[in-house]
Recover the amino acids of this structure.
């Protein structure tokens, strides 16, 4: 675990590689329970079989808004237990976003005590009074904890920090060392780097990596919270091989490989299945049911209740068919 004082030096040396954002497998009536055996299998698969070096726990793909505080704590504990058994050096990242600062603090202190390496706080989903309010939220957590902190700047929050607002949080809170920039606005990430050049940035618009932004030091050598386990198998490690080329600065080879291996086409075929609900196309979501259906296509366990908990909708047959076809064309199944 990185303490607040150590956070920035730690981030520069340890936030590397693919960091898998884990889904939550539900079971029981209406998904009221969690299938812990399925969750343990997922963790072992990501760390032990795929050999991915980082985990990202209880965040958007996990449907944190539908989980109780105790469920979120236990999910993190199990991820640490199984992940470290498979790889003692696995980096465990915990999202502790919550509707109140007090709940966020409770989850953050639990992550600190349980052995997580870093905590990410998504921009508050309710009553965020701009950047000043988000800063105050972060300051409340930082004053009462001693663990590395990251920002999670997602449009699903309803408010996206400007580069100046993110840089101010970084400047005023030494524990803040990294950010997941999830708003798909690379120009803003470049501006943020200019204002806070030592902040470790993951830009979700991954084309910037092909443009040499890692070489330029604008972004870091990590996929901080992605679903890499849905883009490869242990027998067909195309996602890992592609990113190794990027991180090795072999950009022409990476571009050619992404086309030849089918990664680029798979991204097009999947389209917005994971992040767009057709009934609200202007809203960015983490559609848990879509991620879990994709996992089931690859043979991963998703629990006996395959849907998301409320308030998310059930995945349509049309979306399932599109996901099926995308995987067949990619060659990971069939």
């Amino acid at each position: 675990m990185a303490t607040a004082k150590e956070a920035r030096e730690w981030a520069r040396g340890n936030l590397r590689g693919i960091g898998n954002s884990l889904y939550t497998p539900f079971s029981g009536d209406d998904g009221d329970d969690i299938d812990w055996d399925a969750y343990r299998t997922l963790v072992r698969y990501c760390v032990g079989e795929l050999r991915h070096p980082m985990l990202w726990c209880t965040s958007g793909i996990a449907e944190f808004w539908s989980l109780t505080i105790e469920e979120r704590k236990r999910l993190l504990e199990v991820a640490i237990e199984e992940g470290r058994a498979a790889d003692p050096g696995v980096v465990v990242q915990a999202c502790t976003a919550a509707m109140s600062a007090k709940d966020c603090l409770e989850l953050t202190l639990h992550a600190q005590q349980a052995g997580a390496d870093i905590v990410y706080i998504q921009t508050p989903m309710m009553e965020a009074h701009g950047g000043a309010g988000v800063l105050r939220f972060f300051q409340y957590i930082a004053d009462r904890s001693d663990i590395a902190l990251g920002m999670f700047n997602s449009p699903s929050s309803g408010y996206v920090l400007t580069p100046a607002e993110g840089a101010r949080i970084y400047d005023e809170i030494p524990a803040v060392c990294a950010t997941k920039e999830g708003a798909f606005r690379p120009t803003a990430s470049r501006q943020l780097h200019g204002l806070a050049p030592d902040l470790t940035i993951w830009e979700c618009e991954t084309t910037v990596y092909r443009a040499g932004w890692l070489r330029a030091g604008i972004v870091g050598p990590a996929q901080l919270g992605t679903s890499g386990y849905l883009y490869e198998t242990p027998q067909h490690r195309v996602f890992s091989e592609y990113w190794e080329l990027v991180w090795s600065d072999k950009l022409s080879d990476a571009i050619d490989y992404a086309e030849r291996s089918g990664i680029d086409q798979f991204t097009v075929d999947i389209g917005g299945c994971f992040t767009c609900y057709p009934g609200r196309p202007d809203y960015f979501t983490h559609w848990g049911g879509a991620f879990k259906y994709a996992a089931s296509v690859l043979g991963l366990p998703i629990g006996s209740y395959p849907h998301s908990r409320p308030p998310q909708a059930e995945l349509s047959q049309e979306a399932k068919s599109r996901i099926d076809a995308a995987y067949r064309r990619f060659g990971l199944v069939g």
In short: The chain has 13 helices and ten strands. The two ends are 42 Å apart (CA to CA).
